[in-house]
Amino acid sequence: MGLFGKGKGGGLMNVIRCDETEYLVWKWRPLGQDVNSTTRENSIRYGSSLRVKDGEVAVFVYKQKNGPNQDFIEGPYDDTIKTANFPVLSSIVGLAFGGESPFQAEIYFINLQGSNQVKFTVPYFDVVDPRLEDYPVPVAVRGTLTFALEDYRNFIKLNRLVNFDLDAFKNQIKDAMVRKIKGVVTNLPSDLGMPVVQMERRIDEVSDYLEGQLKPRLDEFGVKMKHIDISSLEIDKDSEAYAQVKSLTGDIKARTMRVQADLGIKNMQEMQAMNSENLKETMRIQREEAQRAQKLQSESNFIGAHALNLQAEVLKSGVQNLGKMGTVNLGGGTGSMNPAGMMTGMMMGGAMGSQMAGMMNNMGQQMQNAMNTPPSVPSVSFMVALNGQQSGPFNMVQLQQMAQMGQLTAQTLVWKQGMAQWTAAGFVPELGNLFAPSVSGGVPPVPGTVPPPL
Q1: Is the pTM of the predicted complex or chain greater than 0.85?
Q2: DSSP assignment string, 296-325
Q3: 356-414 confidence digits (pLDDT tens)
Q4: What is the C-alpha separation between 35 and 24, in angstroms, rounded?
Q5: Which band of pLDDT confidence, cut at 50, 70 and 90, is reported for residue 132?
Q6: Contacts for 290 with CB less than 8 Å, ≥ 6 apart
Q7: pLDDT tens-digit map of 139-160
Q8: What's the burial of 60, exposed, middle or buried (CB within 10 Å: 0-12/13-18/19+)?
């Protein structure tokens, strides 16, 4: 500290500043004044110089009848103390000594930039796996908590600045955090579904979860948590409880895997049964469609023959009527024979006969074609096991394409309606031609060239 100069009314002017390197809260006192050594400890001359660095805030605390009031000066600031910058001070400084009268104020510097660390250790305490409540396992936690002061107004409301001791403040935080950490870690197995024996391997997840749980508690001290690092989460592996939990947890895992395997087999069996039922239904629909198509074809043939009979009857009646035209008297004579009518009837009868013969020929040809066309046969379909999954059904054309592409081999398991179980495709008679070995032999020489030597 140093002297700034003398005021007009006598006395010394102070230079108020903080030269500490590591601090959270630091109280300024005039040079040479020890704590509570004189009444001048808090006596400040109006017009003294105030210097506040960037990242600091200077707090002037005035004790008045209605309670303490504060002026806050945030850095950077380097100027003399003036009422324009000190709203509270302007109401209490008198005009004696030309406005240079002393006033009573406690001055504190608060560090807003520094980070403060609190190392903590939570000794062994019992943590219970909810699946094995009779076997509490001893667990210890070690780590570091880092915090900073941001809201200094709230900090001043929650903490006494007089004789503030950073170490004592850190101990208060550590005691509160140890209790909170112990409670959070105790409930980790039930809250996160985390087995006790896995807590060491999931230390990062534990740190992240603790940070979220501890922030509200640290806010009660007026400081903000920056982060928490769990350096070790130790399990007493020599304890009998740990050995029991390790063994029982392994048994539970094995049983869980067996249950999952059984469930998978059951699902596969149910899927096979479902596919079998679907294939049955598909085959039934194909048979019914084939029968319906055959029935429709027969009905069409019958309708064609019936229509031909009707047309034949119509033409027959027409020929008979035209034949009678030979007896019609067209005014050429008195007898019953009419040559002109006879000729007309013969011509028209011949034309109708030719038409009838053509129709009969066409209808007969259509009926013959229909009779020679066999009814469609339902295609055979197979289910195929591809990559451990059931696929299909596939018809023969699709199976042939799959065989050519290498997706279907003689060892591939297949199944169709009527088969007792899945069988390798090479043993199914219908699929044997898909895997017939190719005829191999020497390649004949190109005509006009000499065969290669053996």
Answers
A1: no
A2: HHHHHHHHHHHHHHHHHHHHHHHHHHHHGG
A3: 656 666 766 766 665 565 555 556 789 999 988 888 899 989 998 999 888 899 999 99
A4: 19
A5: confident
A6: 375, 376, 377, 378
A7: 999 999 999 888 888 888 888 8
A8: buried
- DSSP code per residue over 55-121: TEEEEEEE--TT--EEEEEESSEEEE--GGG-HHHHTT--SGGGGT-EEE-EEEEEESS--EEEEEE
The DSSP element (H or E) to which 288 belongs, if any, is helix 240-323
pLDDT of residue 140: 94
3-state secondary structure of 10: coil
**Which pair of structure tokens corresponds to residue 364?**
């007969």
Angle, CA of 155, 158 and 164, to the nearest 5°: 75
Read off φ and ψ for residue 348, nearest 5 degrees: -70, -35
- Nearest to residue 59, comparing CAs of 103, 113, 18, 110? 110
The C-alpha atoms of residue 380 and residue 362 are separated, in whole angstroms, by 36
Lowest mean pLDDT among 44-58, 98-112, 169-183, 235-249: 98-112
Interacting residues of 277 by C-beta distance below 8 A, sequence separation 6+? none
Contact 50, 81 (CB under 8 A): yes
d(CA 88, CA 232): 51
Of 280, 247, 300, the closest CA to residue 378 belongs to: 280
The residue count of the chain comes to: 454
Task: Show the tokens assigned to 31.
Answer: 């040079």
CA distances from 381 to 150, 291, 323, 409, 420 (A): 76, 18, 63, 16, 15
Burial, 199: exposed, middle or buried (Cβ in 10 Å; 0-12, 13-18, 19+)? buried
CB 46 within 8 Å of CB 81: yes
Burial 330-343 (b: 16+ CB within 10 A, else e): eeeeeeeebeebee
**Coil, strand or helix at 410:** coil
CA angle 310, 313, 319 (to 5 degrees): 145
Rounded CA separation 185/213 (Å): 10
Q: Copy the structure tokens of residue 146.
A: 């880092």
pLDDT value, residue 30 = 75
